[in-house]
TrEMBL record:
<dbReference type="InterPro" id="IPR043129">
    <property type="entry name" value="ATPase_NBD"/>
</dbReference>
<feature type="domain" description="Carbohydrate kinase FGGY C-terminal">
    <location>
        <begin position="15"/>
        <end position="123"/>
    </location>
</feature>
<dbReference type="Pfam" id="PF02782">
    <property type="entry name" value="FGGY_C"/>
</dbReference>
<keyword id="KW-0418">Kinase</keyword>
<dbReference type="InterPro" id="IPR018485">
    <property type="entry name" value="FGGY_C"/>
</dbReference>
<protein>
    <submittedName>
        <fullName>FGGY-family carbohydrate kinase</fullName>
    </submittedName>
</protein>
<keyword id="KW-0808">Transferase</keyword>
<dbReference type="GO" id="GO:0016301">
    <property type="term" value="F:kinase activity"/>
</dbReference>
Amino acid sequence: MKQLSKEPIGASGELALDWMNGRRTPDANQNLKGVISGINLGSTSPKVFRALVEASCFGAKKIADRFISEGIPVKGVIALGGIAKKSSFVMQVMADVLNSPIKVAQSEQACALGASVFGAVAAGVYQDTESAMNAMASPFEKVYEPIKENVEAYKEVYKNYSELCVAMENHIMQ
C-alpha cells in the first residue's frame, strides 16, 4: 500500500474501466468489459492497481451523479464492511472522487442491524424508523473527508474516464 499511495492521481496515464463484470447501474450492461488503457513499459503494478481503484470510485460517482441528475439528492455516504474497514487508501480516494465525507459504520453486521431497525418499527417497539435508528444505530468508527486538492485533480481524470466509457461502449457494442 505504501507504493500505491505514492503514485500520483491518475498515475502516469494509466486509466481503467471498472466493467470487469459488465457496467453497473445506472446504465447496466453486462456485455461491456473492463479496460486498462494507457499502459506502457513503465506501468508498474502500483500504477495499474491505482487506476483500478480510481475506476471503481469513478463508477460509484457515475451512480451518484445519476441520482442527482434525476432529482434524488445524495445527502451522505455511509460505507460498511469489507474495503471500508480494510483500506483507508481506497476510502480516501472514494471521498475525494465523490467530493463527499464518507462515514464508516462501526457495526460488523450493519445489514442485519438495519433489518432489525425496521423489524422493531413493524413490531411497534418504536413509533417510526427515525426513533428506532436513533436508539439502535451503530456509531461511526471513522469519517473520510475529501482533500480539496485531490478533488480538483480527480475532476480531470474523471473526465478522461467518462470519455473512455463512451469510446469503449461504442467499440464493444458495434
